[in-house]
Design a protein that fits this description.
Elements: E1 2-7, E2 12-18, E3 21-26, H1 29-38, E4 43-48, H2 54-60, E5 65-68, E6 78-79, H3 89-101, E7 107-112, E8 115-121, E9 126-134, H4 136-145, H5 155-159, H6 175-201, E10 206-210, H7 214-220, E11 226-227, H8 231-243
Helix pairs in contact: 3-8, 4-6
Length: about 240
């Protein structure tokens, strides 16, 4: 069994894989420790984009084979980034998952978390790069932080009043509704515009949305998408298998 752990900017996600499939998902240090005691873990991979975390220290003490996701690991893709050692391991994991599930296809993976990242893998298994943009929550916070009078809103507080993101009015008739329109409709225009640009340049494009906001983005994107919230964990497990 493989334990895959993603230490992100704001949270820790993990899963145990058995024969290539997720057996159980874990979302806290307590759950990870309990699972290790109960499951016969043989391999573990740690991907870290956030700061030091006690989970990482705990896993280093365990006896199973561990892979710390660095650039010495073999990948099932070619990293064609101009600065290959600067690209986040989370993005490389996403591209590895794209290669596993959509081989020989052009794939755009949109990861929706603290940031929105656009990650492109071509049909030759080459990661060419993409784009990094502020996430939805970051946009709400920045409007409050960098102005004197705009209120602090959150994606959760805004979206709970709507059955779908598309219900947010284009013309906001209050400060709160104007902020909601600017952020959510702005992201909608951004993501659809970028998807259409990729589709013009790359035939038969597969679009995958993943991350904590994948359900919302599936509604925002106007063309067919694959909603795969655990795509990064799948990619990490594929890297473990690829490295034996």
């Amino acid at each position: 069994m493989n334990l895959v752990v993603d230490i992100g900017n704001t949270s820790v996600k993990a899963a145990i894989f058995h024969r290539g499939k997720i057996e159980v998902k874990l979302s806290s240090f307590t759950e990870i420790k309990a699972a290790i005691k109960q499951q016969p873990i043989t391999h573990c991979i740690i991907s870290k984009t956030g700061s030091a975390n006690p989970v990482e220290e705990f896993l280093e003490e365990q006896k199973f084979k561990k892979f710390s996701f660095g650039y010495e690991l073999k990948l099932p893709i070619s990293n064609c980034y101009e600065t290959p050692q600067a690209v986040g391991t989370d993005r490389l994991a996403l591209m590895s998952a794209a290669q596993k599930f959509y081989p020989k296809k052009n794939v755009l993976v949109i990861d929706t978390g603290t940031c929105i990242t656009y990650n492109f893998l071509n049909a030759y298994a080459q990661f060419l790069g993409g784009a990094i943009a502020p996430g939805i929550e970051m946009r709400f916070k920045s409007l409050h932080h960098f102005t004197a009078n705009l209120p602090q809103l959150s994606a959760q507080s805004v979206l709970k009043n709507y059955t779908a993101a598309n219900d947010i009015l284009l013309i906001g008739n209050s400060t709160e509704k104007s902020i909601a329109s600017g952020v959510v409709n702005g992201v909608k225009a951004e993501v659809n515009g970028i998807v259409q640009q990729y589709k013009k340049e790359h035939k038969k494009l597969v679009v995958v949305v993943t991350g904590s906001g994948s359900n919302l983005f599936e509604k925002l994107i106007e063309s067919p998408t694959e909603n795969l919230p655990d795509f990064q964990l799948e990619g990490l497990n594929y890297i473990v298998e690829f490295n034996g």
